[in-house]
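Standup notes, structure subgroup. Blocker cleared on the FNR input:
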Amino acid sequence: MKQILEIKDLQALAKARVPRMFYDYADSGSFTEGTYRANVDDFKQIKFRQRVAVDMTNRSLATEMVGQPVSMPMALAPTGLTGMQHPDGEILAARAAKKAGIPFTLSTMSICSIEDIAEATNHPFWFQLYVMKDREFIGNLIDRAKAANCSALVLTLDLQVLGQRHKDIRNGLSAPPKFTAGSIMQMAMRPRWCLGMLGTKRRTFRNIVGHVKGVGDLSSLSSWTADQFDPKLSWNDVAWIKERWGGKLIIKGILDAEDARSAVSTGADAIIVSNHGGRQLDGASSSIAMLPQIVDAVGNRIEVHFDGGIRSGQDVLKALCLGAKSTYIGRAFLYGLGAMGEEGVTRAIEIIRKELDTTMALCGERLITHVGRHNLLPPFGA
Ligand code: FNR
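Run returned:
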């Protein structure tokens, strides 16, 4: 087998092991996928300042996210249907994150439920909330996250309407799902995955099924979900959610300086500069291109986190140099999960950790908390 040295190696393995409809679900953006590609490509224009003959011993990547200690400035982003990349995927990813000393964020649209993760890991994790029209359900979800000891709520604001991903429709992954001869064939070609799926009871959206009246089977679930994302969502809802939650609140999906200032006014603890991994507004700027102006707009009034296009430790360091306090990875860990389950997620995290540490050292820094624009060349550098 090919040596696994970078995230691309895990991606190739995931592609060979995960049924195409689920691999494509991860490896896609909305419409033309222009923003999805820009997220990755725009990192390439940013260049580090190489420094030599400075003391590079005793390095540390440790820092904090919303007041919680982390072994490196990176968390696992919330991703829907993670339990379809690999059986029990969310549980495995949460375990890998726990071992690595970084936060795991469970999506509302996960396969394993809040209670499944709490029971399997016995460790605090973060919960990501989508605002649905059914506010009673949302209130109950928040209460369930509290009961499970979740230590932060990540509120996603950039999915009031759904960006269209052509691949999902072609693969029959739309809601309601279409099981065509082609999609059944895709699964049959991945026997190891099929066996794993037969061996777990977790094959549907377990945060939802059994918690909403009238939603029991797959078809009622699909139509309920498709109709539930709330186009009326406003900043008033954020205030209501903040009060009901009462703990650390992170607002996800900010890509504009004005919205960032509005987020500050809510009193949230952090924002995530994000375009949902290029899955929503196609034609929007890459996340990394928007980061500096958002950092400038909010100053140190709120913690700024970042996601979108991170495939290496070099990418993490570039985001930190441009002012992010911390980062999240989505696809990079999903590829690890699809490739090798829990061990693959661990591998993805450790690949990035090593790249980050080496790159920081070669920039002449010993502490991750000290990096900044001074580590970059113009026009990005200070
Ligand atoms: C996502 N993302 C996402 N975000 C969210 O708030 N709730 C969700 O359920 C999902 N679901 C989801 C599924 C998949 C397959 C992907 C790839 C992404 C967005 C995610 O949290 C994050 O913003 C991006 O993944 C970051 O970009 P990269 O790291 O994947 O390039």
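Discussed briefly. The beta strands are 63-65, 68-70, 74-76, 105-106, 126-130, 152-156, 249-254, 270-273, 303-306, 326-329.
Next: hand off to the docking folks.
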